[in-house]
């Protein structure tokens, strides 16, 4: 639906949520044979995200809470991503460093326990996924472009196009990706004619190599700085095969473990929000909203 516009159109997204959310919920409850009696509480994404879409979720969660007399809990979207690897068969134990790489965020966090998170660094401009999506657009690939750029890069010649590694040598754990996207644009313009397939692949390769280099180096730096030896990678870009390969090499070299959520739990999903809600309610039962006064926090 959003592909025709090259990105998510907020109004279309919230209307689509309204159309689909209740039938989907009903289908899932039936398929999994879950009755309201088996449900302890209802968790929903409170933000950050698009206000309209968040309000649809908040309204449904609070409506169901009222109808079924269940506690309701609002969850921070990024906490869902941070805790998503705990749903894997081989879950990491606390503490760990989390690299959160999605379409909206690029952050390194120290995760000490449930609810105990310290931001170590983040992007000063574009998110990593956003850089993938913008590069895809410049190369004429469909939205969301991350997987397409990654695939195209596998046929590019290594080193044919070398792009800058923004902030690679800055002492902090912050990132910057807008310059990398501009570098792709400059290359496209310099080419002077429509890009042929190999030129596109070489550019994709140059972009992926630069982005992966920075993400890997900063993750290693965060592990050194915190003295931790466990890295968790979450968010849509965590599905990227080149990033996974680079982190595997780094993990051997610097002796740390890397954990990923199951592939289908890397991108946005409800399971991670349910998990975060369950863990929070277990630890702090009073966090449940008993008065059904709901809010969303788009930013
Ligand atoms: O976490 P997510 O599903 O949604 C947000 O909360 O943003 O992340 C979506 C982002 C998009 O920018 C998409 O292009 C990127 O993750 N992405 C990838 C891959 N799969 C998804 N980027 C690079 N390689 C991939 N395989
Ligand atoms: Zn997300």
Task: Name its key features.
299 residues; alpha/beta; Nucleotidyltransferase, domain 5; five-stranded mixed beta sheet; 7 strands; 46% helix; 13% strand; binds 5'-O-[(R)-(carboxyoxy)(hydroxy)phosphoryl]adenosine; binds zinc ion
Please provide a written account of the structure:
This protein has 299 residues and is α/β, with parallel strands linked by helices. The chain has helices at residues 10-31, 51-68, 77-83, 128-138, 146-153, 178-191, 197-226, 241-254, 270-283, and strands at residues 42-47, 72-76, 96-101, 106-113, 116-122, 230-234, 257-259. Helices cover 46% and strands 13% of the residues. The strands form two sheets. Strands 5-4-3-6-7 form a five-stranded mixed sheet. The chain has a two-stranded parallel ribbon with strand order 1-2. Helix 4 runs antiparallel to helix 7 (197-226) and helix 5 packs across helix 7. The chain is globular, with a radius of gyration of 20 Å. It starts with 9 loop residues before the first helix and ends in a 16-residue tail after the last helix. The structure holds 5'-O-[(R)-(carboxyoxy)(hydroxy)phosphoryl]adenosine (KG4) and zinc ion. Residues 77, 81, 102, 235, 268 line the site of zinc ion (ZN).
Short description:
The protein has nine helices and seven strands, in the order αβαβαβββααααβαβα.
């Amino acid at each position: 639906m959003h592909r025709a516009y090259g990105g998510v159109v907020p109004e279309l997204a919230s209307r689509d949520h309204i159309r689909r959310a209740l039938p989907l919920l009903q289908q899932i409850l039936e398929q999994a044979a879950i009755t309201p009696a088996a449900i302890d509480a209802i968790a929903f994404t409170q933000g950050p995200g698009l206000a309209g879409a968040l309000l649809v979720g908040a309204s449904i969660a609070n409506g169901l809470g009222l109808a079924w007399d269940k506690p309701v809990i609002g969850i921070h979207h990024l906490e869902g991503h941070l805790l998503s690897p705990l749903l894997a068969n081989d879950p990491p134990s606390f503490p760990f460093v989390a690299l959160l790489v999605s379409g909206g965020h690029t952050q390194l966090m120290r995760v000490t326990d449930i609810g105990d998170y310290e931001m170590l660094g983040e992007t000063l401009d574009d998110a990593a996924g956003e850089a993938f999506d913008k590069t895809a657009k410049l190369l004429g690939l469909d939205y969301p472009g991350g997987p397409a750029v990654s695939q195209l890069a596998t046929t590019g010649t290594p080193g044919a196009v070398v792009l800058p590694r923004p902030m690679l040598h800055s002492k902090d754990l912050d990132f910057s990706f807008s310059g990398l996207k501009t570098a792709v644009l400059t290359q496209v313009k310099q080419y002077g004619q429509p890009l042929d397939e190999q030129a596109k692949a070489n550019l994709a390769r140059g972009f992926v190599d630069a982005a992966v280099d920075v993400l890997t180096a900063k993750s290693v730096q965060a592990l050194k700085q915190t003295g931790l030896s466990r890295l968790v990678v979450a968010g849509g870009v965590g599905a990227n095969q080149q990033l996974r390969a680079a982190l595997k090499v780094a993990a051997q070299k610097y002796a740390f473990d890397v954990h990923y959520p199951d592939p289908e739990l890397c991108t946005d999903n409800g399971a991670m929000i349910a998990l975060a809600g369950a863990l929070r309610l277990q630890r702090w039962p009073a966090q449940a909203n008993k008065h059904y006064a709901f809010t969303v926090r788009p930013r």
